[in-house]
Specification:
Oligomer: single chain
Strand order of the largest sheet: 11-9-10-1-4-2-3-23
Distance between the termini: 29 Å
Largest sheet: 8 strands, antiparallel
Length: 499
């Protein structure tokens, strides 16, 4: 899970990229990077940490130029070392920088091809560096001249689609020539285009979420289509083309459950509205399974579940209360390696308001339950705060399988719902009863009415991997790399590089 942003403007874009990345910070808190182009030079700053910590005023002054790209990262492939922060750079052809949101399911095979056939060296464990080198090799194979054309960019993306499998939303920049972006043929990971008209001409931006465009004053034009590529040249002209032979719109449904901000619109679906409908459908299931539910108050586990929890309370006809205060300086716990670190983080992250729990039967609503560590700790906190009974409901179905398309969900054996029934999960987390959303209801809540989305990527719920290349061997390798014992860490950063 990462955030990407690219801007071609009529004025310097450094502060716009910074502000845009802060609006995408929820998509990646491990590392951040910005690359700009000024007078034929590439200026790059990237390091581990939050946006506010990576970029000082000195860095910002040196990030000159009217076009650039930015990236915020959660590690899903490779490690969390600073060397794997993005954007990545290759010097030939032209000089290319690229940031990527997603995961290549054939990255190992591609890395071998790059070494043996393309004679390209991969310096990190990141599949994003692999993707960049595939793109650079295919562009070089066209034997381009000093002047790049949109047709050459689109031919290159077509070749990338033929070689790369998995999920990818990509933003890149050709030094001195323009910014490009493309999306995988299934549209798993999101990307949206925006425009801003000024007295000096039009400016264009591409982002993972519309919230970044809105915050920067861009008007949302549309989402990139699955398989589509765009190229915005240095003069501000935008070119688009469909570059994949076979496409279908199959966005990741977990974007709507948890990843995206509620004020974003992804593939023409309001994240906020979809979460309202999740709450409505969850309440109906509670009434079906627990008609005599005995709930006194509904309390969300902040922040993502608030929207659904309010609808649950409304349709159950019970009070909604804020029972937990959140420390906003603790990261997302299901991604943190190590059980002890997660347990410690939950207690630091949430603090109960005891008067909302004392003597009451409390329904806790969460957006999803992944490892269950957080849920068990929160149920215990609710009881310690005086709750008579603690019920729990999840706005998403049981997460039984690892995600392979860009979300750092753990190995299958670390998922609480893997090989467990709802009753067994209820016992593990210590709730008096537990209700999960049905997958069909979740899909209906997001798609709603007659939206053109054909299907959703829902592998973490149903174990169906829509790219067709994920088998038991792949999942075994994934488990080896993602388990707590195998988590790698890194520290440090890279200073500003002027090329």
């Amino acid at each position: 899970m990462c955030g990407i942003l690219g801007i071609v403007g009529v004025e310097p874009v450094n502060h716009q990229l910074y502000d845009g990345l802060t609006l995408l910070q929820h998509r990646g808190q491990d590392a951040a990077g910005i690359a700009t182009c000024h007078e034929g030079r590439l200026i790059l700053r990237k390091a581990a940490g939050l946006v506010r910590d990576v970029f000082s005023s000195t860095h910002m002054r040196r990030l000159q130029g009217n076009m650039g790209i930015g990236h915020v990262r959660y590690p899903t492939a490779g490690s969390s070392a600073a060397a794997e922060s993005q954007p990545f750079y290759v010097n030939s052809p032209y000089g290319i920088v690229m940031g990527h949101n997603g995961n290549l399911t054939n990255a190992t095979e591609l890395q071998r091809e790059l070494f043996e056939s393309d004679l390209r060296h991969i310096n990190t464990g990141s599949d994003s560096e692999v993707l960049l080198n595939v793109f650079a090799h295919e562009l070089q194979a066209l034997k381009p001249s000093t002047t790049i054309t949109p047709e050459q960019i689109f031919a290159t993306v077509t070749a990338v689609h033929k070689r790369c499998k998995g999920a990818y939303a990509v933003i890149g920049m050709l030094v001195g020539r323009g910014v490009f972006a493309f999306r995988d043929p299934l549209g798993i990971r999101p990307a949206v285009i925006g425009v801003r008209h000024t007295d000096n001409g039009s400016e264009y931006a591409v982002s993972s979420e519309s919230v970044a465009l809105q915050g920067l004053g861009f008007t949302r034009l549309r989402d990139l289509e699955p398989g589509e590529a765009i190229f915005i040249d240095i003069d501000g002209n935008m070119h688009t083309r469909q570059c994949a032979q076979k496409t279908s719109l199959s966005p990741c449904i977990f974007e709507y459950v948890y990843l995206a901000r509620p004020d974003s619109i992804i593939d023409n679906v309001s994240v906020y509205k979809s979460r309202l409908r999740m709450g409505e459908k969850l309440a109906k299931k509670i009434l079906r399974e627990r008609p005599d539910h005995q709930i006194d108050v509904v309390i969300p586990i902040p922040d993502t579940s608030r929207t659904s929890a309010m609808e649950v309370a409304f349709h159950l006809g019970v009070k909604y209360r804020e029972g937990f205060i959140k420390n906003r300086y603790i990261g997302r716990t299901f991604i943190m390696p190590g059980q002890q670190l997660r347990k410690k983080s939950v207690r630091q992250k949430l603090s109960p308001i005891e008067l909302e729990f004392a003597g009451k039967n409390v329904l806790l609503v969460d957006d999803s339950i992944v490892r269950g560590t957080t849920s068990g700790q929160i149920v215990e906190m609710a009881r310690d705060a005086g709750a008579s009974k603690v019920f729990m409901a999840s706005a998403a179905p049981p997460v039984r399988y690892p995600n392979v398309y860009g979300i750092d969900m753990p190995a299958a054996t670390e998922l609480i719902a893997h090989d467990r029934s709802v009753e067994q999960i209820q016992e593990v987390i210590g709730a008096d009863w537990l209700v999960y959303q049905d997958l069909d209801d979740l899909i209906e809540a997001v798609r709603y009415d007659k939206h053109p989305i054909e299907t959703f990527e829902s592998c973490c719920f149903n174990g169906e991997y829509i790219t067709g290349d994920v088998d038991s061997s792949y999942l075994q390798d994934l488990q080896s790399n993602r388990s707590d014992k195998m988590k790698k860490t890194g520290t440090g950063g890279e200073d500003l590089v002027v090329l």
